[in-house]
Design goal:
Chain lengths: ~240, ~425
């Protein structure tokens, strides 16, 4: 079974919000739209976003670092938002594992928002239905687009390629390799929801070097205590080089 | 003894009755107007947001629904538990249960994103959803209580009153279990995910429903100049006291259990200590106004006999119940989701931040409109059908004990 998902590399995400804006741009004009905004430039802006970048300061001053954490629907393999939906508007597709909302069946009771432990569901305040990331389902299968563009808008927009897209059930896919080789992890695995989206952790490359490794044991210059001195009539190094 | 109790419609055609009808009708219209305003402009005109998705209307709606199932208890005590003194009270009990449920459901439905899609909710069922179960439990409750009332009020069908009452009693327990489970089944949020939610809601329904019943009983008897004996009223108020105490017990058990588990300490700290409005509502609203003060009023040896005090105690139980609903529904949502357990979290969005919610006027108006719908239904029904006994004087309710009491009084004299 295919399970499409995003893998987000926290090591290279710079928090530029390109994924947020490209998501909004594609989806507000696509089949998942429109995504309403109220007071977008005012004091208390409200609006619907499928993807938000959350920025955390990790650690205690002065030992802190900034982590940008893009979060959208994680397309859980056992999504808690699906069983709670009274009309079955919230569903998981068998063919590719994408969790979707049928806007025509959603009555806007918002109970799925209570059930999602990740806070991924948002109500569209004007269309009054629950909305969330669709993995750009209206784009990834669009044969009118060139093959390379059949990816979610956020993946295409990411300037640092922090977002990967693919089938996490295929062990040879780019996303599976990335998860396997870079310690990819799920958000809150203890809920048992088995989120399909994974995060690659911050990675710092450090190697331990011992003192003796910095000294060459068989350094020929150290073999004899005195270095051979050139004769006084021989040219010095400065005389024979041109710099 | 049963033959002594006669039921009679409200015959009063004076300005008082129609004035009450007009007042309630006006409040209902204002509530519907508020619902239209929110529906037309979208949810952004309310105080609700992506963190607090259920606001003030839900507090009213869930309260009314819980109180509805509790209001039926008076009838159940009569027909299920065979206390004959309660039988004259039963028709009003069934009526109030239907009316409160109708009011609550009206608010609930009008607060949905798409009230117009109610037909979808009734034609597409996801049987795994406790919400879908509740749709059936609520509509079924109406039907079951209507049948129960019919058995009670139609002389030929009287013999079926007991089985109908028994079935209605089981149904009401299922209903409140369903309502409590809406919160009990929420594993994703710290304040819920507790099996005790279901029985706690059942006991809350006993208390809120009986308080509402006593108030309606006292008001309807006073305004229609019928006699309400002390005996039956004292019975009801003593029972209310037991229910109020039981609610406090369940709240205590819930919080003690949570306090025992280290993972719940932060949410308990939020509700009990530093949650601002939620902490105030919990201690002052729920515990003091809705629990300890009415308990003291109801069981006070002299004050507890005063009708004004009993009435006020009922009103306080209802106010405290609203506070309790607010703490459970809004407080639980305001407490942030835990995405990184064990970490202190704050980000550029809502993470780690207590969500803010200020109910807007239309939300209050819709909720109050629901209460008015319930009262309006009762007001109309008692005029059309014979729900109210002509008299509940001590001698009629329980002639044996009444005459005994007189006998002992004479002896004492």
């Amino acid at each position: 079974m295919t399970q499409l998902a995003l893998v987000i590399d926290l090591n290279v995400c710079v928090g530029c919000h390109a994924c947020v804006t490209s998501c909004k741009e594609w989806n507000t004009s696509g089949t998942a739209g429109s995504m309403s905004d109220d007071n977008p430039y005012g004091q208390d802006p409200t609006g619907t976003f499928f993807n938000r970048v959350q920025t955390f300061e990790v650690g205690t001053y002065p030992n802190t670092e900034t982590v940008h954490f893009p979060k959208s629907c994680l397309h859980c393999e056992d999504p808690p938002c699906v069983p709670v939906c009274p009309t079955g508007a919230s569903y998981k597709r068998a063919e590719d594992g994408i969790v979707l909302v049928d806007y025509d069946k959603c009555i806007g009771c918002k109970y799925c928002s209570w059930a999602c432990p990740y806070g991924a569901r948002e109500i569209d305040e004007h269309l009054k239905v629950m909305k969330k990331c669709t993995l750009c389902v209206d784009r990834i299968y669009d044969t009118a687009l060139p093959e390379t563009e059949r990816k979610p808008a956020c993946v295409l927009a990411c300037p640092t390629s922090a977002r990967l897209f693919g089938d996490v059930h295929d062990p040879e896919s780019q996303v599976s390799v990335a998860i396997r080789e870079n310690g990819g992890y799920q958000l809150l695995p203890e809920w048992g929801t088995n989120p399909a989206n994974h995060y690659l952790p911050r990675r710092k490359t450090r190697i331990t070097i011992h003192e003796d490794e910095l000294e060459r044991v068989d350094n020929p210059l150290k073999k004899e205590r005195r270095q051979p001195r050139p004769g006084f009539d021989e040219p010095t190094l400065d005389d024979v080089t041109s710099w | 003894m049963k033959a002594n109790v006669h039921f009679r419609e409200v015959l009063n055609n004076g300005t008082g009755y129609y004035g009450l009808l007009a007042l309630l009708g006006a409040i209902v219209l204002i509530g519907l107007g508020a619902a239209y305003f929110m529906e037309h402009n979208g949810h952004f005109v309310t105080g609700m947001n992506n963190e607090i998705v259920w606001g003030m209307p839900h507090v009213f709606a869930v309260f009314l629904i819980v109180a509805a199932s509790g209001a039926l208890n008076v009838a159940s005590i009569g027909s299920v538990f065979g206390k004959s003194q309660y039988k004259p009270l039963a028709p009003l009990s069934g009526l109030l249960a239907i009316a409160l449920l109708a009011g609550g459901l009206a608010v609930l439905v009008l607060d949905l994103g798409h009230p117009d899609r109610l037909i979808v909710a009734m034609t597409y069922y996801n049987f795994k959803s406790i919400f879908a179960w509740n749709v059936m439990l609520y509509t079924g409750f109406m039907a079951v209580v209507v049948v129960y009332l019919w058995m009670m009020m139609e002389r030929k069908m009287n013999k079926y009153t007991k089985p109908a009452g028994f079935f209605a009693f089981i149904w009401r327990l299922a209903l409140t279990t369903g309502t409590g489970s809406i919160f009990g089944f929420i594993v994703a949020r710290e304040a819920y995910d507790a099996a005790i939610m279901a029985p706690m809601f059942v006991i809350m329904s006993f208390s809120f429903g009986l308080a509402a019943y006593i108030l309606v009983l006292m008001a309807s008897f006073k305004w229609t100049e019928r006699e309400l004996g002390d005996k039956i009223l004292y019975r009801l108020k003593n029972l209310l006291g037991i229910f109020v105490g039981a609610v406090l017990y369940f709240v205590l058990a819930y919080h003690l259990t949570n306090l025992y588990a280290a993972e719940h300490h932060s949410v308990e700290r939020f509700i009990l200590l530093d949650g601002g409005i939620y902490t105030k509502l919990f201690w002052i609203g729920q515990i003091l106004i809705g629990g300890l003060i009415p308990l003291a009023m109801l069981y006070h040896p002299t004050l507890g006999k005063s009708r004004a005090v009993i009435g006020w105690a009922c009103a306080l139980v209802i106010l405290g119940g609203m506070a309790q609903m607010y703490v459970i529904i809004i407080g639980g949502q305001a407490f942030p989701l835990v995405l990184f357990p064990g970490m202190e979290v704050s980000s550029s969005f809502a993470d780690g931040i207590v969500a803010s919610y200020t109910p807007k006027l239309p939300e209050y108006l819709l909720g109050i409109g629901g209460v008015a719908i319930a009262l309006l239904l009762v007001t109309i029904a008692v005029k059309v059908l014979r729900f109210l006994p002509e008299s509940l004087a001590d001698a009629i309710v329980d002639p044996h004990t009444a005459s005994d009491a007189k006998g002992t009084a004479k002896k004492a004299a």
